[in-house]
Request: fold
Amino acid sequence: MAIEEDRAVKAAQDTVVRETDQGYRVLGSPEESVTHQHDTDRIPRRDITEEDIIDSADDPESWLTYGGNYEQHRCTTADVITPETVGDLELEYELHVGAESSMEGTPLVVPGDPPVMYQSNGPNHVKAIDTRAGDVLWSYTYAVPSDVVLCCDDNNRGVAVLGDKVFMTTLDSGVVALNRYTGEEEWYTSTADHESGYSATWAPVVYDGKVFTGSAGGEYGVRGFHVALDAETGDEVWRTMTSPDEEWVGDSIEQSCATNWMTATIDTENEKLYMPVGNPGPDFDGSVRPGPNRNSAGTLCLDLVTGEREWFHQESPHDVWDYDSAAPRLLIPDFEMEHRDFEGDAVVSFGKTAWGYTLDADNGKLLNRSEPGVQQLNMFRMIPHIDEGRRMPFMPGAMGGNDWQPPAYNPELGLAYFKMNNSPQEAWWRFEEYEEGKKYWGGILEDEIDQPPEGYNDHISAVGAVDPETGQLVWRDWIDSDAYIWGGLVTTESGVVFGGTQNGDVIAWDGETGDRLWEYSTGETAISGSPMSWYDPETEKQYVAIQVGGSGWLRRGTAGRDDRLCVFSLEA
Reply:
């Protein structure tokens, strides 16, 4: 059946996203969610277990969770692609998913005959795809309420799989469970009131029979939380607020934000969650929230069984620069630091400050802070009040450094890879009355500035590698464009790093040296997706898949949208 005849695709195409004074608003979504089945008999009936997901870290044929494994390494053991062979990589096929919307996701691949991909994009649209033929087997579009408001476009960054289900967060701050074989809805759970400004855009993660999901809405004066849902029923198991009441002054806790809006990292051995936490609220007016605003802009560790708080590491105390620390954390087991006489598990965070932080996974203590990945100019200087008439560009701007884009880690080389922005911005703070469901920035953020700070090198973005043990910046590739860099990376254990750029290029770097080994132009549309990779023993090929299309938050990006899934391959 042609994609034009797919009812779920049509529903996604009819769902329009408009930018307003209060953010992005979703219009024209279907009154009820829509599933369209094409050839569901082609999907092998094999339920996915948690052991499968754990083992997938060493299984080149699968990619069963957002980061490739629970530790979020985004590293495949498939070894057909190496620094010596990557130059022969070719485009296998392009699939137009049919909804020209935000394309920020990472697909999953369930091994089988054939392997089945679960791919999602905005606005809450997901497909099951035969990876060999590039055929859609079923598609689904969630009925997003028309009164949803979003700070940064109708993003959906991926799904989770467990048993016979696939799980997706929804823009109205919920989670929907679909039958993995048919695309039909099994259950839906709302985690918060979207009319208050809550939303959800990240890939959930599943373990211990639970679906773990967070909170977004840090520009609307909400209060951040993380929640565990029963994977079979959708019932809430536990809920933890990211910021404890006693650590904030007065009633500022009510609009404290500190939302957890990207995927948590799971330590299965010690049963812990490590999660990124965003800015305090309001973003720029710190006068209404005195003190360090603890448990914002940093890393939070929770007991995954009970939700009890274990520790927090803060990267930007009393933040007034919108320095979310949003990217997924890298968990490195059995990590050694000779100069610190440390041996144990470590957590690595890349945040908007442009530093990489290596933390003791047991207690959150800082073991090492890396060299900056991009420039730090006028950093941590207080931003002016809107009435003072002063301009003060600062770097990194509110886009980071490293925003949400997930890093990667190669355990063979011991290197962590990042994508960072290197663009100055200006901000002013002003007093604003909080109004439920309305933007609560406490100021203005400006992209276009008259004069960059002294010393600016004019490079807007960078991709690079850091040694988490020493903090050394091992290599860096500056990338020039008119737009921010977005989306994450993937690495092969054999030593290749893949990522897309805002210029529409897919690039393979040598993971050890940073040399560019291969490039492919997809056109002029910015690439906002995060790539992944797998091996198919039937075709004897290793594949790399990446979504091509912009995001509304790429306000300096290229005009227009795209709806492509590009799949590249190399035969053994």
Remarks:
- The chain has a mean pLDDT of 95.
- The first strand starts at residue 16 and ends at 20.
